[in-house]
């Protein structure tokens, strides 16, 4: 049933292009049986065939532009999203990158067989050239898929990093004119920058005269972290707010002394409660315990 | 510096910054970009006004300032220093977050300058604390 190739003398690239256009249906049918397509398009086989056709069209277009080795060729643009979806679907199913790559490689033999069946009378040299061109094209397809899958992953990581930055730095209003930032996790330059910005913004917003930086959730304090803290404190002071650093655990206090870190004139307290007590005292606010005959102030901690 | 057309680029950039007197306190409001020469002029004006008026406090409102460079930062620190010599105190008011971050990154933490969130708070601060002051805390930062 396969008609003979009419122009055996054409260049291998054009030959491949013509072959892909001619055998579009058959290639797509065979690909639909391959694990890669079968696993991604589980709903119906027709869907897999359609997806396969789209890929074949893209490959033909790339061959037409004679850019077999270029993963950025215009032909791939349209199927890139689909390929990325297939790649990520397979990775999500628990396949390693190498396994996905292997499944992609498995797409080549059926096409190659079809090609060889199409060129029975062609000179051996021409056949070899065509097969090589096809291999190159399929290799490029593999690169495109892997590339897209990787950049998807990178985008996901970037997005999550951004979310982490936002999530990890809430500014809490504790009282009129008192805000607190519970710092959690390691403080690096990027995070301390975000902390500083959000804190300063909320100082303006809340007209807060006192800001408490609670470092209970910071696992280690080294000279860099101390420097970041000092910067935040200095910036807050420039705006007219006083910063108190609280939540210094015994072990951290020891480490800081061992390292010779000096927080200078920054007011420090052991716990957030102590810091709040200090600030309330500074503001002249006392907490009255109802049981203690009305006048006993228990919240204000002496300096 | 184009001295020929003051204010030709929008905001009035050259000339004097007015120093307002409110009882014992001098109020200075900085707006927009400040020319180096204007800042220096202000420094001189302030010193003279303090001596003549016997003011005990200077409030500098920087809420209208979007850019502070190292020069202006130094001028502000110098103003605080000279005001201190003349037995008055300087309070910097309403600095924007971005400006504060920039100054800290430049290493200009302005020790010895008092700060406040609003002019109201600044006036209260100056009223509360007599020149003899228990405000030792901030002075100690001058290392």
Written overview of the protein:
The complex is a heterodimer of chains A (303) and B (143). Chain A has 303 residues and is of the alpha/beta class. Chain A has 2 domains: 12-163, Histidine kinase N-terminal domain (Globin-like, Orthogonal Bundle), CATH 1.10.490.70; 172-283, STAS domain (Transcription Regulator spoIIAA), CATH 3.30.750.24. In chain A, 60% of the residues lie in helices and 9% in strands. Chain A is built from 12 helices and 5 strands. Chain A has a 5-stranded mixed β-sheet. Chain B is α/β, with parallel strands linked by helices and 143 residues long. Chain B has one domain (19-139): STAS domain (Transcription Regulator spoIIAA, 2-Layer Sandwich). The longest helix of chain B is centred in the first third of the chain and has 18 residues, at 36-53. The radius of gyration of chain B is 15 Å and the shape is globular. Chain A binds chain B through residues 196-197, 200-201, 203-204, 207-209, 231, 234-241, 264-265, and chain B through 92-97, 99-101, 103-105, 109-110, 115-118, 121-122, 137, 140-141, 143.
Give the SSE map:
The complex is a heterodimer of chains A (303) and B (143).
Chain A: H1 12-22, H2 24-32, H3 35-40, H4 45-64, H5 77-92, H6 97-105, H7 108-118, H8 124-167, E1 172-175, E2 178-184, H9 189-206, E3 210-217, H10 223-239, E4 242-246, H11 250-259, E5 267-269, H12 272-283
Parallel strand pairs in A: 2-3, 3-4, 4-5
Antiparallel strand pairs in A: 1-2
Chain B: E1 19-22, E2 25-31, H1 36-53, E3 57-64, H2 70-85, E4 89-93, H3 97-105, E5 114-116, H4 119-128, H5 136-139
Parallel strand pairs in B: 2-3, 3-4, 4-5
Antiparallel strand pairs in B: 1-2
Helix pairs in contact in B: 1-2
Number of helices of chain A: 12
Query: Could you say how many structural domains of chain B there are in total?
Result: 1
CATH topology of the largest domain in chain A: Globin-like
Largest interface: A-B, 20 and 24 residues
**Name of the CATH first level of the largest domain in chain A:** Mainly Alpha
Sequence stretches where pLDDT stays below 50 over 5 or more residues of chain B? 1-13, 131-143
Number of domains of chain A: 2
Q: How does the helix and strand content of chain A classify structurally?
A: alpha/beta
Average of pLDDT of chain A: 82
Tell me the strand percentage band of chain B.
Answer: 15-25%
